[in-house]
């Protein structure tokens, strides 16, 4: 496809993301004397420490692309994804996204005391489906998740599920809808091999339906199987952005050092 025909879905322009930790006390400020000083000068509550997690990231993602986000622990992958989803503010620069990006993570909100089936209904309504659509899709979502493969788990509270079962149900709910931009944070890694194959196939379908998929994963296999482009983040900066095989090769030799 020529560049002019490609439709941008997410644009990051020199984006910086900074966490502010209020009330954090430095290692050299724990002595009784410095505690007394803070009480006398009343400076305790104004103690703010900053973590500059993403530092000047720029990229353009296009419709139909599946982009893998890789990098060492703490390199800023999840932070960037949360900012694309609009859940974290950008301190400097900007991130623009088409439609409402949906973040699908292992921590997506579910009601643990409600049954899996009820969570499917609520999740679908929250994604904007009509009650009639929810009724029609509910069974196929439960079937896709495979939680009923070993008995009728869909009618049991979510707190009785293993972490893998919960993650599978979350993925099944989010994948039931067509997304302009779907952001997946490690969710594929939690399922077993059979579920992973099924979810990877669904990610490929979502791409065909013209959405853009971002996948954060430490599994090179998942990235290879799903993405044709990879963004490699290191210490909050983009180290490489290009075709999957090329970037993974560079990343592998960096990790071996
Ligand atoms: N809620 C938070 N408050 C303060 N700092 C945070 C918070 N979440 C993340 N950080 C910091 O931001 C940086 C990037 O973290 P992030 O979770 O985005 O990395 P990651 O690449 O997703 O890591 P991993 O591969 O371990 O999941 C780290 O230095 C981390 O300590």
UniProtKB/TrEMBL annotation:
Highest taxon, organism lineage: Bacteria
GO CC list: membrane
SUPFAM superfamilies: P-loop containing nucleoside triphosphate hydrolases (SSF52540)
Domain ABC transporter stretches: 37-257
Gene3D superfamilies named in the record: P-loop containing nucleotide triphosphate hydrolases
Pfam families xref list: ABC_tran
UniProt KW keywords: ATP-binding, Nucleotide-binding, Transport
GO molecular function: ABC-type transporter activity; ATP binding; ATP hydrolysis activity
Family membership: Belongs to the ABC transporter superfamily.
Name of protein: ABC transporter ATP-binding protein
């Amino acid at each position: 496809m020529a560049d002019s025909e490609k439709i941008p879905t997410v644009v990051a322009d020199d984006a910086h993301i900074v966490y502010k930790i209020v009330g954090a006390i430095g290692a050299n400020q724990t002595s009784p004397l410095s505690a007394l000083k803070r009480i006398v000068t009343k400076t305790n509550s104004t103690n703010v420490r900053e973590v500059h997690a993403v530092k000047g990231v720029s990229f353009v993602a296009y419709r139909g692309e599946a982009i893998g986000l890789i990098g060492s622990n703490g390199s800023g992958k999840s932070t960037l994804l949360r900012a694309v989803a609009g859940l974290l503010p950008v301190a400097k620069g900007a991130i623009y996204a088409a439609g409402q990006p949906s973040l699908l993570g292992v921590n997506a909100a579910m009601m643990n005391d409600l049954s899996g089936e009820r969570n499917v209904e609520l999740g679908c309504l929250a994604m904007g489906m009509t009650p009639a659509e929810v009724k029609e899709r509910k069974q196929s979502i439960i079937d896709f998740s495979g939680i009923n493969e070993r008995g009728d788990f869909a009618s049991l509270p979510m707190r009785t599920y293993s972490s893998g079962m919960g993650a599978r149900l979350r993925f099944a709910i989010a994948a039931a809808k067509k997304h302009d931009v779907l952001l997946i944070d490690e969710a594929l890694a939690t399922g077993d091999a059979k579920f992973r194959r099924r979810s990877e196939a669904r990610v490929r379908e979502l791409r065909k339906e013209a959405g853009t998929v971002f996948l954060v994963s430490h599994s090179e296999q998942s990235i290879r199987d799903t993405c044709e482009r990879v963004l490699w983040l290191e210490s909050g900066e983009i180290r490489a952005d290009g075709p999957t095989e090329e970037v993974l090769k560079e990343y592998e030799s960096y990790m071996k050092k």
